[in-house]
Write a structure and sequence with these properties.
The chain has helices at 4-14, 53-65, 101-114, 132-138, 202-217, 269-289, 304-310, 326-330, 337-350, 369-372, 378-387, 415-418, 425-428, 466-470, 476-486, 490-494, 534-537, and strands spanning 33-37, 70-73, 77-78, 90-94, 117-122, 150-151, 154-155, 161-162, 176-179, 184-187, 222-225, 295-298, 321-322, 358-360, 391-395, 496-501, 506-512, 519-524, 530-532, 544-549, 561-563, 567-569, 574-579. The protein has 17 helices and 23 strands.
C-alpha cells in the first residue's frame, strides 16, 4: 500500500475543484434534473401503438414523483416521419400522430400545475422535403429560391452529370440528391428527405428565430437544439463551388460517413455565431416575458475545445448547457476509475469560469446504460450522474434500468439502419434504445391499450417495470428517487466538488459547502473487493461517516456509521456517506 505522501501526491494530480462565489446565486436550470421524453415511446393514449402528447400529459405527474425539473420532448412537429420527426414539415404545427395544438396547450397547463417545465427539440439544420419552403424553393420561387443549398453539379468528360462534391451524408451515400424539377442537386447532411437550410441567407436565420419566439410565447421553457455542428457548410467560392473533403483511409466503405474528414461540412465558425444569435433571442424573450430564464441546450458531438466555445465568452452568451457527451461517448464497459476521473476532469477543467456543468449518460441515439456499460452498473452510473455538480440529464427508462431490445432486420425502422444492410444495420440502428416505456406487467407493458407497438417491447417487461419497482426498496427507481432527494441538499446543489480515483477500481466524489454536511460518493467500478481510506485522501473529514445511500450490492445499511479511514466496497457497489 502507498504511504500517505505518495497518496497525497497522486491525488494532487487528479483532484478538481469547482466553486461558486455566491452559493445560492443560481438560476433554476443550473442545478436542474432534466428528463428526455421520446414521445413515440413514452405513453400512447389512443391505442394506435405510438406515444402521443395526451399520453405525456397523463403521465407527467410521474416526472414530479421522481424529482424532475424539466423535460425535453423529441420533435412533435408536423412531419412525414422519414426520420421520426426530425424531418419537420411545419415548425409551428403539431403532427396528427402526436395530437393537436389543443393537446399541446393542455400539456402546458398540466406542466404549470405540477411544476415540470417543457422544453422542445428544435431542429435548425434542415426541414422535410415536404415543407412549404422547400416546395417553393424547388419551384425557384423568388422568396424561397435560396432557402436551401443548391448546385447544378459537375459534368464529366463523357457528359454525365455528377454531384458537385464528394461529401458523404451522416446516413450514408452522397450528401447531394438530384431534383428533376429544379434541375439541380440539393444538399442534405442527413436523410435525402431532410434538405439543409441555407444559413448564409439572412431570411432563413430570421425565420428560424421566429420559430423560437412562437413556442416560447406559448409557454415552453426553452429548446434542445439538434445537430448543431452541421448548421453551416464552408461558404462557396466566387464561382459557387466547394472543395472535396479529404479521405479517412482507415474506412474502406466509401458510402460511410466516416470515410471522409468533415472539415468543410462540420464545426464551421459561423455555427458558433448562430448559437450566440439563438441565445440573444432567448435573452430578448426573457426580458419580454419576465419570470424565469428560457434556456438553450445544444447538441454537438465534437471536440471539447470547440464545445467550450458553445458556452460563449466574456462578450457574448452562448448555450446555457452545451451537452456534455464525454462520459456518454467515451466510457466503455472496460473503463477503469482513472478513465472515469479523466473524462469528468476533461469537462470541469475546460469549462469557462462561471458556466454550468452538465452530465449526459443516455439519449435516443445511443445504446442504453445497462447494455453499454453493463446492467450491474445501472445504479452506480445514476449515483455518479446525480452527485456531480450542475445539471443532470436522464433519458426515459434509465431510471428504472431499461436495456436495449434486439430488433430484427425486418422490424428495423430507423433510417440510419435501414439505409445500410442486413450485415451492418445492428451497428447503425438506433431502434434498440427507443422501445416503449415499461409502465407495468400488464397488456403491452401499460404503454398502450392497442394490440401492437411501433417498436417491440423488451421481453423483460413482466419483471422490469415501473409499477413493480415502486414496491421494491432497492429497485433502480427507488435508488433514483433517493438520489433526487439528496440533490436538494445545499452541498449537492451549491457546493464544491473534488473528483479522484483511489485506484483503478474506485472513483470518489466529494461534495462540500461551508456550514453543511460533507458527502463522500464511492463507486467500485469493477469486480474486485476494495477497502479505501477517504480520510487520508480528503481534508476536513470527521472520524466517523454515516451511510446516506446504499444499494442492493451493499452489506451496509442506510444510517450505519463507520470509521472514515476504512470503507469496504463490494463488486460494483456504489455508496454515499456523510460527515457526522
Amino acid at each position: 500500500m502507498r504511504n500517505l505522501v505518495e497518496i497525497y501526491l497522486y491525488f494532487a494530480l487528479i483532484v478538481v475543484t469547482t466553486s461558486d462565489k455566491k452559493v445560492t446565486d443560481k438560476s433554476w436550470w443550473q442545478t436542474a434534473s432534466f428528463y428526455q421524453i421520446y414521445p413515440r415511446s413514452f405513453k400512447d393514449s389512443d391505442g394506435d401503438g405510438i406515444g402521443d402528447i395526451k399520453g405525456i400529459t397523463q403521465q407527467l405527474s410521474y416526472l414530479k414523483e421522481i424529482g424532475i425539473d424539466a423535460t425535453w420532448l423529441s420533435p412533435v412537429f408536423k412531419s412525414p416521419m422519414a426520420d421520426f420527426g426530425y424531418d419537420v414539415a411545419d415548425f409551428t404545427e403539431i403532427d396528427p400522430i402526436f395530437g393537436t395544438m389543443a393537446d399541446f396547450d393542455e400539456l402546458m397547463e398540466k406542466s404549470k400545475e405540477i411544476g415540470v417545465k417543457i422544453i422542445l427539440d428544435f431542429v435548425p439544420n434542415h426541414t422535410s422535403d415536404e415543407h412549404e419552403w422547400f416546395i417553393k424553393s424547388v419551384q425557384n420561387d423568388t422568396e424561397y429560391a435560396d432557402y436551401y443549398v443548391w448546385h447544378p453539379g459537375k459534368v464529366t468528360e463523357n457528359g454525365t452529370r455528377i454531384p458537385p462534391t464528394n461529401w458523404i451524408s451522416v446516413f450514408r451515400g452522397s450528401m447531394w440528391t438530384w431534383n428533376e424539377n429544379r434541375q439541380a442537386y440539393y444538399l442534405h447532411q442527413f436523410h435525402y428527405k431532410q434538405p439543409d437550410l441555407n444559413y448564409y441567407n439572412p431570411k432563413v436565420r430570421e425565420a428560424m428565430k421566429d420559430v423560437l419566439r412562437f413556442w416560447v410565447r406559448k409557454g415552453v421553457a426553452g429548446f434542445r437544439i439538434d445537430a448543431v455542428p452541421h448548421i453551416y457548410e464552408v461558404a462557396p467560392d466566387s464561382d459557387g463551388n466547394w472543395p472535396d473533403e479529404p479521405r479517412n483511409y482507415w474506412e474502406n466503405d466509401l458510402e460511410d460517413y466516416n470515410s471522409l474528414q468533415h472539415i468543410y461540412t462540420k464545426d464551421q465558425p459561423e455555427t458558433l455565431e448562430m448559437v450566440y444569435e439563438f441565445r440573444e433571442v432567448m435573452n430578448e424573450l426573457d426580458e419580454e416575458l419576465g419570470g424565469y430564464q428560457h434556456i438553450i441546450l445544444s447538441e454537438a458531438y465534437t471536440d471539447i475545445d470547440i464545445l467550450m466555445q458553445y458556452y460563449g465568452n466574456t462578450t457574448v452568451d452562448g448555450a446555457h448547457i452545451p451537452f456534455n457527451f464525454e462520459l456518454l461517448s467515451n466510457l466503455k464497459s472496460w473503463s477503469d476509475a482513472n478513465h472515469y476521473s479523466q473524462l469528468i476532469h476533461n469537462w470541469l477543467d475546460s469549462m469557462p469560469a462561471g458556466r454550468t456543468a452538465n452530465w449526459v449518460l443516455g439519449n435516443h441515439d445511443q445504446s442504453r446504460i445497462g447494455t453499454r456499460l453493463g446492467w450491474e452498473r445501472i445504479d452506480m452510473i445514476n449515483v455518479m450522474l446525480k452527485t456531480l455538480p450542475g445539471a443532470s440529464i436522464t433519458y426515459q427508462g434509465e431510471e428504472i434500468g431499461m436495456t436495449d431490445v434486439w430488433i430484427s432486420w425486418e422490424n428495423t425502422v430507423d433510417p440510419q439502419g435501414c439505409q445500410s444492410s442486413m450485415q451492418e444495420y445492428e451497428r447503425l440502428s438506433r431502434d434498440p434504445a427507443r422501445t416503449p416505456f415499461q409502465w407495468n406487467d400488464e397488456h403491452q407493458a401499460g404503454f398502450t391499450d392497442g394490440n401492437t407497438t411501433w417498436l417491440p417491447l423488451h421481453a423483460n417487461y413482466k419483471t422490469l417495470n415501473l409499477k413493480r419497482e415502486r414496491g421494491i426498496s432497492f429497485s433502480h427507481l427507488n435508488i433514483y428517487k433517493q438520489l433526487q432527494k439528496l440533490r436538494r441538499e445545499k452541498a449537492m446543489r451549491y457546493g464544491e466538488t473534488d473528483v479522484m480515483a483511489f485506484n483503478r477500481n474506485v472513483l470518489a466524489i466529494k461534495r462540500y459547502l461551508s456550514g453543511e454536511r460533507t458527502f463522500i460518493v464511492l463507486l467500485n467500478i469493477n469486480d474486485d473487493y476494495e477497502a479505501v481510506n477517504p480520510k487520508a485522501a480528503f481534508i476536513d473529514l470527521t472520524d466517523k461517516l454515516e451511510y446516506i445511500l446504499t444499494t442492493d450490492k451493499s452489506i451496509r445499511q442506510k444510517g450505519d456509521r463507520v470509521s472514515s479511514d476504512y470503507i469496504e466496497l463490494l463488486s460494483k457497489e456504489a455508496v454515499i456517506l456523510a460527515t457526522i
